[in-house]
Amino acid sequence: MHQLRRELSYTHTHEDTQTPPHKAIACNQRQAIKMNSTKAFQSPLVRHRASQFPELWPNIMVRLQMSSLSVKRGGPEVMHVGSVALAVVAQVISDVFCYLAKESNVPNAVFAASPRNVTETFPLEVTMDWWSDSCWLIIDLWSKGWLLYAVFNIIRTDLGPELHPPVFYLLWTTINVARMCLMHLWDKHDLLGAVLLGWVPPVLALYMLYVSCSHLGKHEAWLAVNRPRVISCTRYLIQNGLAAFAWWSLLSAVLGLGVALKYKACVPDPLTSTVVLTAVSSCSIIWFILQSCLLAKYMRHVFSVYAILILGLGAMFTRSYRFQDLAANTVYCGFLMLLMTVMNTIHTVSLCLHADESNKPAATSKGCETVWHTDLRGPDVKSGLFRV
Asked: Is there a cis peptide before residue 166, judged by omega within 30 degrees of 0?
């Protein structure tokens, strides 16, 4: 290893003492190293010596890749900082609109009635009970938590891989703008516009969840060694917060579809409520299949969905429950609550079994892949063999 370092040092010294054209070639080679770590070993002498130490080759390549990553992510990019700032501003403005829409603050210059009054104007059998309004407070606090975490990462100038690109935060800005427009449309009793726009927040939030899960799965191996706390914060703060927001918004969108069916298409209410509950159950079953089988690797740690569904279905159940006159949709709603509980139990048990298997020591063999720990702040990266 020391001999390989000396020969690398000799190679760089030899390249620096060449004629000006050769100096230009060496400069281009150093720039290529920064852009692509696979071009780092251009010297035949270095490649020959590296072939004599094959056990050191993976460590060298990982260090060069992380060095090129540190060059690329050395400071917060302007686009990333701007997108996070725009998302924070949109969240604050949305909170102002929500405050103005409270029942104690209407009517005012912006809203003529509160969302609860609008809901009572267009009731369904499965309309959520009054206490469900407090769920938005918890979900919004969760959203503010991961936004503050994003701001903290900018201040800390994290050198790790970028899990959430600028488009991630621009989508959240779009969601908050859609929420503000949605409150205005419901206040004006524009049912068709409100129903169409109501599907924008859940769809975009689910796409944001997909972006977060896919990027975390891509960089999980490196983060597990260098920044394990980032994995936990991303899973339990960002991904579960996005899932809670997406599914609560989905429940609101499905209820809005039911309102449009009843008051625009003149579909009878018991049938409309059955369609709403069937849509909720279909979406939840699809989610369960994706989380348990197809995308278990990425969605295994998203556990807030079933809690949100149980709360939403519980709000529908408590509003329509009559002991002496139990409606069919109330029974259907209670059955779905039981189904969500069973799904949540199965998911929790499978997660615990997976955690037990991952904690078992893996059998060592010659074919096992070696995981190298790379410290970007170490002396080997800042100077010497791996200096770029």
From this structure: no
Name the CA dihedral angle for 261, 264, 270, 273, rounded to a multiple of 10 degrees: 40
Cα gap 205→136, rounded to integer Å: 15
State the DSSP string of 157-186: T--S--SS-HHHHHHHHHHHHHHHHHHHHH
Using CA of residue 119, residue 130, residue 317, residue 255, what is the dihedral sign?
Answer: positive
- Residue 169 CA to residue 174 CA, distance in Å, equals 9
189 conformational bin, left if phi > 0, alpha if psi -120 to 50, beta if neither:
left
Are the CB atoms for 4 and 49 separated by under 8 Å? yes
Quickly tell me which residue has 């791996």 as its tokens: 386
Residues 6+ apart with CB under 8 A from 108: 100
- Contact assessment for residue 154 and residue 358, using Cβ atoms and an 8 Å cutoff: no
Backbone Cα Rg of the chain: 28
pLDDT tens for 195-220 read 999 999 999 999 999 999 999 989 88
Structure tokens that stand for 284 in this block: 């939840």
pLDDT 10s digits, 232-242: 999 999 999 99
Q: What residue type is assigned to position 232 of the chain?
A: S
* Residue 294 token pair: 């197809």
The DSSP secondary-structure symbol of 56 reads G
What span, in angstroms and rounded, lies between the C-alpha atoms of 289 and 67? 40
pTM of the model: 0.74
Q: Give the single-character DSSP code of 127.
A: P
